[in-house]
Design a protein that fits this description.
- The complex is a heterodimer of chains A (325) and B (338).
- With 325 residues, chain A is mostly helical.
- Chain A is 77% helix and 2% strand.
- Chain A is built from 13 helices and 2 strands, in the order αααααααββαααααα.
- In chain A, strand 1 and strand 2 form a beta hairpin.
- In chain A, helix 1 packs across helix 4.
- The radius of gyration of chain A is 24 Å and the shape is globular.
- The relative contact order of chain A is 0.14.
- Chain B has 338 residues and is of the alpha/beta class.
- Chain B is built from 12 helices and 11 strands.
- Classes of the chains: A mainly alpha (325), B alpha/beta (338).
Amino acid sequence: MLAFVIRRILQSIAVMVSVALIAFVMFRFVGDPVNQMVGVDTPQAEVERLRASLGLNDPTLVQFGRFLWNALHFNFGVSYQFRLPVTQLLAERAPATLELALTAALFALFVGVVMGVYCALRRDSWLARLFQAVSLIGVSLPTFLIGILLIYLFAVILGWLPSNGRGQVVKIGNWWTTGLLTTSGLKALVLPAITLGLFQMTLIMRLVRAEMMEVMRTDYIKFAKARGLTTRAIHFGHALKNTLIPVITIAGLQLGSIIAFAIITETVFNWPGMGLLFLKAVQNVDIPIMAAYLMLIGFLFVTINLLVDLAYGFVDPRLRVAMRT
Amino acid sequence: MSEPVISVRNLRVEFATRRGILRAIDGVSFDIARGEVLGVVGESGAGKSVTGAAIIGLIEPPGRIAGGEILLHGQRIDNLPPDAMRRIRGRKIAMIFQDPLTSLNPLYRVGEQLIETIRTHTDLSARAARDRAIGLLSEVGIPAPEKRIDGYPHEFSGGMRQRVVIALALSAEPDFIVADEPTTALDVSVQAQIIALIKRLCAERGTAVMLVTHDMGVIAETADRVAVMYAGRVAEIGPVRDVVKHPLHPYAKGLMGAIPTLEAESERLLQIPGSMPRLTRIPPGCAFNPRCSHVFDRCHVDKPEPIEPDAATAARENLMPGHLVACHLYTAKTGGTP
């Protein structure tokens, strides 16, 4: 087990170095950063001095090493547009994105699993058919359209929920701000969370439904029935646990993409998170922010992947053996 | 013979498919007494497993019991509401499946599955149920049961898993067990052990057994009586030695002739020409008529019912009572000689 964990961690580090390389290469491709810092009339000597002080004359490998070293210390340089450290900018906005993403993920997971199980067990009921139809809409409609439709319905026509922003936030500790403790914060969270989670919810629902129907056909379910176990024990004890193994992977991996794809939702709802910051950075060619964001999302994906792999072992005893070897 | 544990009366099972209704079981009747082992043989699709599933009430839609009745100790069980039937399953009637590798839930310890079953059917405390589970495991011949009870199914070999499955089936002391090809998936060397185990445990408890298999060797060794099924009907049923030694139905003869023996001098095994008809295309009259070498006019018109053969045949073959055959060759009226 320990060898397995260590091997997976080493793999994760390799992936992160590759991501860092891509982030690093971005700086090279977008042109000379010095040109964006100096004015037209800056003397050439001054430009050269600046270039030397930024270490841009060193060999590429040395520069990459420095970039990695800085990244390890959460130092991604200074944003071109805000003239503030990138790390500080991202840290300020991270709570908004993480709260939104986690809420969306929990919504997707719970509603998706419940609807999926229902659809699998009551396959022919009209409600199951309705869920199936709705899930098709969820899969096929683009996120921004769902967001706009929800805003139109609940904010414009009904006026129940706010259309944008994060509502009132409360500061916890030094740098974490939360909207979960105020009514307006919670209200503001509902629409973006649904918008962001809807796609994953329908995905999980369809996955759970298909998996569970598959599991219900297996011999051990037939044998459980032949042993006279109660329907509840069969469905929720024997079938659901087996269903959830592939769901764990998908749900885990989806959490990464929820955070990454929060960009669109954050734009639609003007949510003050990292995604919105990233979009502004793209518009203004603010490479340090883009690079840091890339590294952050990469790190989240790799970490989640690692955790999902480890979580398998806890659910499926057969894999514990495989991990030991 | 005492009152049968299980009586199947004129059972019909149908499957509704797009191309119409398939009759998988067409008028099957038999009794199994306390402590008796009835072997059921036949080709794949002859209706052996469906009969077992019907008795335990696990015919899945689109299948359904379309007619006839199933009696447990003289009480009808085929028309019970689902929850009442569930209480009978496991407690009065148990089932052993073909593949022990897939019969156990891979995510639960063996003990958890045993205790769950025991506690579903009895009022035992968790502690007492665990003791009983350990007792069952040792009875089915699993070494160090107090340790193995906390093992997962994948930590057991195929034969050991089938022993666990048997322990699970016996956990509530049922009166009747359907064993649906319990050894097909096992090594030959393990097969004999498992069959002997089932036979011993059921004899000790007086459990009636319906042993579904296509292994005639298993039947000859284990069963008290044997039913030969063909295309959803019983072709021949009777005491096992009688049917194996003096098969009457042309199909049963073919089956017995296809068993290789060490003594026999014949160079080639007998084979039955053709294959069993699809359920959509069962010919009128006797279902075996396209493959039968003794076919005559009546076979195309009349469905033969399993009856005692005519006195002349019975005397000639020195048959035991209770040996029934569904073939027009043996009705007194025609009295043909096969």
